[in-house]
Amino acid sequence: MLQEVHVGHKSLADYQSVVARNLVEEIRELADSLKGVRVLHVNATSFGGGVAEILYTLVPLMRDIGLDTDWRVIMAPQEFYEATKFMHNALQGNPVGLDEAQKEIYETHNRLAAESLGGGFDFVVVHDPQPLLLRHFAGDQGAKWIWRCHIDTSTPNREVADYLLPFIDHYDASIFSMHQYILEGIECPTRVIVPAIDPLSTKNMALSPEDADYVVNQFGVEPYTPLMLQISRFDPWKDPLGVIDAYRIVKKSFATVRLALVGSMATDDPEGWSFFTRTVEHAGDDSDILILTNLNNVGNLEVNAFQSRADVLIQKSTREGFGLTVSEALWKAKPTIGGNVGGIPVQITDGETGFLVDSVEECADRCMWVLDNPDEAKAMGRAGKEHVRANFLIPRLLRDYLKLFAELREQS
Ligand code: UDP
Fold this sequence. Notes:
By secondary structure, the protein is α/β, with parallel strands linked by helices. It has two domains: 2-196 and 393-410, Glycogen Phosphorylase B (Rossmann fold); 209-391, Glycogen Phosphorylase B (Rossmann fold), CATH 3.40.50.2000. 43% of the residues lie in helices and 15% in strands. The protein contains 15 helices and 13 strands. The chain has helices at 21-32, 50-64, 78-91, 100-115, 134-138, 158-168, 209-217, 240-253, 272-283, 300-309, 324-331, 344-347, 360-372, 374-391, 394-411, and strands at residues 2-4, 38-43, 68-74, 123-127, 144-148, 173-176, 190-192, 227-231, 258-263, 289-293, 312-315, 336-339, 355-357. The strands form two sheets. It has a seven-stranded mixed sheet with strand order 1-3-2-4-5-6-7, with helices on both faces. Helix 2 links the parallel strand 2 (38-43) and strand 3. The model has no long low-confidence stretch (mean pLDDT 96). Bound molecules: uridine-5'-diphosphate.
């Protein structure tokens, strides 16, 4: 089954003051040639994680510039998401693949979703592996089909990659976030497009220090307390346990430091709860560690407030497709420390716009440097913000999609 996701209204004109003027002009020109085309985005969840985050802005902006755009999510029983989580992990390098029963579940629910697709689309953009087989089961229906991969597929489990490749090759184009993620053996045309954040969403709009303090204080964090923060789903690849270990090292030198781990529970991530429990256990009875989820009322505004208030922002992933949280942190002009993996190094230039780390000790070391050198750290945060402005804001991503649509259209 496919279910429609309803999104609010956004206007490209509002972004004019945030990004370069010629980018907005380029978007308008491209949009002129695509007016009225029907676009469908399909993914696996409307809540939690980076893809939903992007679509809540991209879909209304596409509509605003005249593309008739919809967003639907694939709805299936829990066993489907369990199978696709195995697939997600395998594509990121986990040796455990899918068994025959899981492949059967995966194929069945993609076939059922394809049957409910309906026709009349010019472009169908399928995000990530969960709904990947839609193109196979639906046929082309006169549309151009794009598979958009958001995960780090640089060293995939080969068996799972080889199972998926023939299905990917049915697409007219595929998009990866980094060159090194392009799957070996892929035959359909590939593009590299990095994701982006929405600078005007409630998660990223400017908040005054007083407002940020006020919101964070409601969760028990007093003003002036040094605060380390990681915002992430509870997922082993995001390494919240490593962040706790780094905090424990920092705590030896900065007795008042606190750590907040904020993580939403995505509906397509059945592993989330068990890893959440492991994280809580790892934190033990340390009341200076705050572990919060969307179930504690931590929504976009609260994420913004925590990022705006924290002294050190961390994304200590050990695998990371892109890591929107890094751009979100840099956009708040905050010193940001990221794992030296996946899409994080394109956002953080080590020592200039933040720090890249390979271990718990290095992470702790950089956190202590930030707490010891607030002025230098602030300058780094400001450089990070300009880097995000130039490269990772949503109008640039919109432009890249429009360019691809225009190119694919010319081919027909
Ligand atoms: N996020 C959130 N609340 C949380 C945890 C994460 O809103 O408690 C958001 C986060 O701000 C970011 C997205 O979820 O926009 C995560 O995207 P990212 O690319 O960092 O990682 P993914 O979850 O897609 O692997």
